[in-house]
């Protein structure tokens, strides 16, 4: 038990240290441009955590980030690198929109589960395509998932600029508004919606399957030595396709939540890089469920506070992306120094 406690403590210290290092580097960048980093960080944290509204907005941003992080963390257990959370999110949103605008006569208790299944199915199939190509030896899942992001975004653009464009949208590219029955319910008068429950259930299942089931044991065996696992009768090909499908499905649920609870219709501006941020979160957390929640919380605070920096310090929106890129570089550099 002491060993596991020490490992958890070491992981926590590593996580805090990496994040603090990135903040210090970004503080140096702010100083170069004549900004006060202490004041900037104070404004970020006070605006996001200093009121109930700010905290609720942070939690809203955490929902898709946790789901897209799970889309990366699950395949990573067998050394699959899923960079396609963004595209899988868009395809999940596309499938969910199709269900919402075509089954308007269904009651909410039937329509909401239907679009949830469609969202999971859309993202899952998009991820499974890359898994299938990996199994057949046609392409690395890293490259295929990355390139398919752009295909997915263009596919959504095709529909919202074309057959699904709302004729009453004043020439703005978006689908028709969802019916009330297709809107995810929110809680306590805030924008925190039912997707939060999906994210929590996803985290619990992720932990339970990996630590308490035979499937989790087989995944760990594949992650340690794929050839040895294959020789012991474990179908590595099946796991590759299955984990890419489930991972993509989690990102698809994030897309369903965004169109159903946040936007209420399908738009090209559906995601400000949520899938890529989820990838960063998974790497920061090392694929650990608690680490995913902590990293999603911190990055949600940063992205929520980005608007504050623009208004109070006249820092461009790209400043937040610079900070997140610094965090990624620090994580990659730290991992690059450790043997696999």
How would you sum up this structure, described in words?
- The mean pLDDT is 88.
- The chain is globular, with a radius of gyration of 20 Å.
- The two termini are 25 Å apart.
- Helix 1 packs across helix 13 (318-336), helix 4 packs across helix 10 and helix 11 packs parallel to helix 13 (318-336).
- The longest helix has 31 residues, at 2-32.
- It has 340 residues and is mainly alpha-helical.
- It has 13 helices and no strands.
Which helices and strands occur, and which strands form pairs?
Blueprint: H1 2-32, H2 37-49, H3 52-76, H4 85-102, H5 108-135, H6 141-161, H7 195-212, H8 214-224, H9 226-231, H10 236-263, H11 274-285, H12 289-313, H13 318-336
Poorly predicted runs are: none
State mean pLDDT (0 to 100 scale): 88
Corresponding CATH architecture:
Orthogonal Bundle
The main β sheet shows up as:
none
Output the structural class: mainly alpha
Task: Bin the strand percentage.
Answer: under 5%
What is the strand tally?
Answer: 0
**Radius of gyration, CA atoms, in whole angstroms:** 20 Å
Distance from N terminus to C terminus (CA atoms, Å) equals 25 Å
Q: Give the overall shape, derived from the CA principal axes.
A: globular
Which percent range fits the helix content? Answer: over 70%
User: Helices and strands, in N-to-C order?
Assistant: HHHHHHHHHHHHH
The total count of helices amounts to 13
The tally of structural domains comes to 1
Instruction: Fill in the CATH topology.
Output: ABC transporter involved in vitamin B12 uptake, BtuC
The CATH class is Mainly Alpha
């Amino acid at each position: 038990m002491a060993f596991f406690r020490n490992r958890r403590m070491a992981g926590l210290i590593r996580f805090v240290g990496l994040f603090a290092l990135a903040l210090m580097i970004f503080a140096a960048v702010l100083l170069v441009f004549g900004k006060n980093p202490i004041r900037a960080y104070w404004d970020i944290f006070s605006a996001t955590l200093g009121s109930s509204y700010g905290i609720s907005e942070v939690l809203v941003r955490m929902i898709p980030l946790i789901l897209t992080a799970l889309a990366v963390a699950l395949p990573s257990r067998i050394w699959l690198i899923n960079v396609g959370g963004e595209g899988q999110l868009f395809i999940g949103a596309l499938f969910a929109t199709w269900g919402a605008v075509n089954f308007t006569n269904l009651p909410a208790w039937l329509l909401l589960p239907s679009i949830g299944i469609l969202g999971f199915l859309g993202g899952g199939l998009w991820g499974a395509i890359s898994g299938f190509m990996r199994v057949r030896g046609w392409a690395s899942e890293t490259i295929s998932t990355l390139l398919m992001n752009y295909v997915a975004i263009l596919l959504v653009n095709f529909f919202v600029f074309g057959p699904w464009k709302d004729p009453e949208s004043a020439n703005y590219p978006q689908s028709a508004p969802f019916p009330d029955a297709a809107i995810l319910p929110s809680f306590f008068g805030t924008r925190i919606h039912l997707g939060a429950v999906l994210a929590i259930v996803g985290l619990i299942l992720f932990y339970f399957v990996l630590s308490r089931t035979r499937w989790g044991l087989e995944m760990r065996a594949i992650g340690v030595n794929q050839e040895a696992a294959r020789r012991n009768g474990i179908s590595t090909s099946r796991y590759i396709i299955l984990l890419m499908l489930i991972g993509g499905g989690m990102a698809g649920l994030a897309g369903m939540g965004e169109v159903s609870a946040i936007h209420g219709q399908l738009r090209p501006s559906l995601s400000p890089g949520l899938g890529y941020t989820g990838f960063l979160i998974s790497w920061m957390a090392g694929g650990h469920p608690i680490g995913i929640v902590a990293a999603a919380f911190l990055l949600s605070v940063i992205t929520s506070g980005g608007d504050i920096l623009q208004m109070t310090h006249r820092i461009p929106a790209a400043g937040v992306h610079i900070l997140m890129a610094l965090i990624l570089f620090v994580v990659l550099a730290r991992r690059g120094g450790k043997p696999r």
